[in-house]
Each structure stands twice: as C-alpha cells, then as structure tokens.
Predict the 3D structure of the following.
Amino acid sequence: MSTHRALQIIRYVADREGDVSVNDIVGHLQIPGASVYRLVKTLENEGVLQRATTPGTVEISNDFLRSMISGASDEQIIAGFEEALLCITKTWSTAAFLGRLKGKDVEIVRAVMPADTSKGYIHPGLNIRPLHTCSASRAILAFQPAEKIDEALSQDITVFTDKTIADKSELRDELALTRERGYAICDEEIDTGITSIAAPIIVGRAGIVCSLGIVSTTRNMHEHGLSNVGEYLFAKAEGAVVSLNQNMFELMH
C-alpha cells in the first residue's frame, strides 16, 4: 500500500465536511480509480475509514478519530484551541482555560490571562480538577457514558465550601442540567467568591474530550450573567472544533 497516497486520502476525508465518495477522492487527488478503491478498502479493513450513512461514501472511523485525539500531545490539542481561548479572554476580560479528559481525570492544560491585568484576575491553575465540582471537569463528565458517570460518583466526594454539591443524587441532577443547557457552572463550590463556567467540546464522533471555560470573581460572573456566559461558551466551543481538526491532521503532511 502506498503510504503517501493513503495519507492523502485520510487527510482529504478528514478535511471535508460530510460524506466522501470514491469518485470525490479520485477527482480531487488525481489518483487512479483502481488505486483509490484498493486503498479505501485497505483503510476500511484497518479501521481508519468506515462506511458513511450515504451509500457509496466513507468517513473517518470513530475508533481512529478517538485514537488521534487521545494520542495527541497537550501542545497539539492546545494549538487547535488557542485562537478560541484568546477570543474568550478578550471578550470577557478574564482568564480562559482549556480542560482535557485524560483517562479517568480531567486536567486543565492551558490557561490564558487577560491582556489588561490591572484589575486583577483569577488563575485557574494547570492541574487535575475534581470531577464532581470544577466546571471544566463537570462539563466533560456530564456527557460521558452512564457507567463512567457511575464510576466517578462512586468515589468519595470532597467538600470544599458550604456550596459544594456533595449529595450524589443532587450531583446527578446537576449533571443532567449541564447536559440540558449545554454548559457547567461551578458557583463558589471550590473557593468562596470564585465562579467558573465551562462548555463541552464535541470533537466529531470522538465525543466530549475537552472543555472551554472562564473563571472570575463571583460578583463579576453574576454581573455578566451566568447564562449569557454559558451560551457564549457553548457557541464558541462548537466553532473551535474546526481549528482542532485542521491542526491534528497537519501531522499527516
């Protein structure tokens, strides 16, 4: 199998929105049809491509996409979302952060500070966050399969403040609310006077693997309006996926 041609096909299918037919690949890449059919079949057998919903078309397979995301370095993931983080920080004049699912944990892997720091800001820290409380992790946990949620909630719940949701039934309700509105809120649950909001990032069929959010003083966040911030982050997270996809598949040049 021609590795170069196979990578060309993978990149082309990954960059296209919607399903891709063999004729599309032949026409765009100028590879002989017989070679394209053979390579596509091999890539299907290897689990890189899969049949799409439209007859005669293919798409990047779920397993391959998940492998690409999970195997990517923090630097590659960050590069895909850096523009969105900078935009969020500029819009709200506060710190923005990127959370990433790593195994059973969620870690904040990037934080961007506002350009004007004269008014002060809250740094979210670059570390593993509590699954049940932090908005960065709650935004991801809420969209995981039921068995993963059950596993997370089977652990001991650490109480940080008198506003920490420690009752597991209430936590399930909060996760359900997060799924319904599309973003998570941590309102003084970790530190008194500090509130954060994060939205899940859906990376195609790889599912929820990251979250985008901001953190500031509770007073500042409530003045902005929690729903206003949450809806903004939800929309920004949707748009940011395009940059990630382009960055990830740059590796295939």
Observations:
- The CA atoms of residues 73 and 248 lie 10 Å apart.
